[in-house]
């Protein structure tokens, strides 16, 4: 091999190595974007059936069918509308509609010693792992709130071997203060990490607090979360209570849930019905709005070289 051939061989080898190195570098550079894009689409979306409570009272089976056709993956119950004590039948109905039980809202009485076994059996049969209490007067009582927290700790311990969890859902009142701490913070501090802090992010924002900060403050405890369209007083003339048209910036909240919240379900709750539209239509509008938000979030993630989502909060 002469000098010229040797130089050509070296050049080819260098070129191949450079191309391989560049390809590996490009892949490594692109991985955060891929991971972020995946996270923007990984949390399933359910509906809190209180959103369509009138339809549920009228014909529960038909209401389930309608929300399934909208594209919801799961439902969170707020009553069982004739299926009380009929977990097998309700489970079959969900299976037929390809719906999952994303959770349920029940009262604290279901956690008492005399009721807990039936509570476990019913919801285990239903495939419902998340048992959430949406309201209890003791929560904001300076003394009774301590005992309530212990009830949740005890219940969480009982439920854990069954693959189930309990938790609490906030409204505005939970952000009142006892001394220098909110009742929500006191409950979080008094309960163990297995107790879910189900934020209703709309109510958190309405109470004057940042939902993102609370997701980050208690990492891994926002296993289910409510996205409820909320219009602040100053926005009543320009906003509507549909996801994507309301006062809350949902994209960054979703990102926090995906990155640190340990969130397994995003639950849409359509509490009000703007413009006199039917409940089902309003719920569908909010689902479409949320899907658009997540699609835009994913696109921004893919086109951001560092993989970070630059979204104003």
Written account of the structure:
It is a single chain. 47% of the residues lie in helices and 12% in strands. The radius of gyration is 24 Å and the shape is globular. The chain has helices spanning 3-39, 53-58, 60-70, 87-96, 116-126, 144-159, 183-190, 201-206, 211-217, 250-261, 279-302; strands at 45-48, 74-77, 100-105, 130-133, 165-169, 177-178, 181-182, 196-198, 224-227, 265-268. It has one domain: Alpha-Beta Barrel (TIM Barrel). The protein contains eleven helices and ten strands. The strands form two sheets. An eight-stranded parallel beta sheet has the order 8-5-4-3-2-1-10-9.
Mean pLDDT: 88
Strand order of the largest sheet: 8-5-4-3-2-1-10-9
- Give the low-confidence spans: 2-41, 307-313
The shape, in one word, is globular
Number of domains: 1
CATH homolog superfamily: Divalent-metal-dependent TIM barrel enzymes
CATH architecture: Alpha-Beta Barrel
Distance between the termini: 65 Å
List the total number of helices: 11
The largest β sheet comes out as:
8 strands, parallel
Rounded to the nearest angstrom, the radius of gyration is 24 Å
The secondary structure category is: alpha/beta
| CATH topology descriptor | TIM Barrel
SSE series: HEHHEHEHEHEEEHEHHEHEH
Q: What is the class in the CATH system?
A: Alpha Beta
- DSSP strand (E) fraction? 5-15%
User: Based on DSSP secondary structure assignment, what is the total number of beta strands?
Assistant: 10
């Amino acid at each position: 091999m002469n000098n010229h051939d040797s130089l050509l061989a070296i050049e080819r080898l260098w070129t191949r190595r450079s191309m391989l190195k560049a390809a590996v570098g490009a892949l490594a550079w692109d991985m955060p974007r891929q991971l972020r894009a995946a996270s923007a689409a990984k949390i399933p979306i359910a509906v809190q059936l209180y959103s369509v409570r009138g339809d549920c009272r009228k014909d529960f089976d038909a209401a389930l069918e309608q929300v399934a056709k909208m594209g919801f993956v799961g439902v969170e119950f707020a009553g069982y509308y004739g299926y009380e004590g009929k977990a097998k039948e309700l489970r079959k109905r969900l299976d037929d509609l390809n719906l999952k039980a994303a959770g349920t809202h029940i009262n604290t009485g279901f956690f008492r010693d005399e009721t807990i076994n039936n509570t476990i059996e019913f919801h285990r049969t239903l495939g419902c792992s998340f048992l959430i209490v949406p309201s209890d007067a003791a929560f904001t009582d300076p003394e009774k709130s301590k005992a309530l927290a212990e009830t949740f700790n005890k219940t969480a311990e009982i439920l854990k071997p069954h693959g189930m969890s309990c938790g609490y859902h906030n409204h505005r009142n939970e952000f009142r203060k006892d001394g220098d701490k909110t009742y929500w913070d006191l409950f979080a501090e008094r309960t163990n990490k297995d107790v879910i802090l189900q934020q209703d992010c709309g109510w958190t924002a309405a109470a004057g607090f940042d939902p993102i900060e609370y997701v980050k403050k208690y990492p891994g405890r926002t296993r289910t979360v409510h996205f409820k369209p909320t219009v602040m007083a100053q926005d009543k003339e320009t906003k509507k209570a549909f996801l994507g048209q309301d006062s809350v910036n949902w994209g960054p909240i979703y990102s926090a849930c995906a990155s640190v919240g340990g969130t397994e379900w995003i639950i849409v709750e359509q509490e009000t019905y703007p413009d006199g539209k039917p409940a089902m239509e309003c719920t569908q509008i909010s689902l479409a709005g949320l899907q658009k938000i997540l699609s835009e979030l994913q696109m921004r993630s893919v086109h951001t070289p560092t993989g970070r989502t630059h979204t104003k909060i």
